[in-house]
Amino acid sequence: MALAHSIWPQRNMDTILLVDDNPLRAAMRQSLLEGGGPEVVRALDAAEALCMVESPEFAQGLSLVITGHVMTGISGPEFVAELRSRMPRVPVLVMSMVSDFERAYQGIGGVYFSESRSPEELRSLAGKLISVGHRQTA
Length: 138
What we know:
Rossmann fold, alpha/beta, 5 strands, five-stranded parallel sheet
């Protein structure tokens, strides 16, 4: 467990918003990210996530949003564009196995991409992106 503590930036109020309409995958990712790190809050879809960020108390501690590219309802690019209009500085990690999905996000700043299924890579990348977010708001 010592590794889990070392990859997370030291800040008490960090929250990761995990947007995933697949309950099994969401539970797995939440479990991977929670070990010694920030609080992970799940949203079942993009619409629920957008409602959550409307709360100033929730938005204040938000350090990272992790979402998929293909979702039911609002698409990944639509969600990220809307999120970015509300929260311009919070890093967003888009995960997908769809080839060339990054092109759909051209022109939207603060978006990072991963095609990895590796738990270690997800944890490491999340820790790095939270650090990026801290530098942007400092």
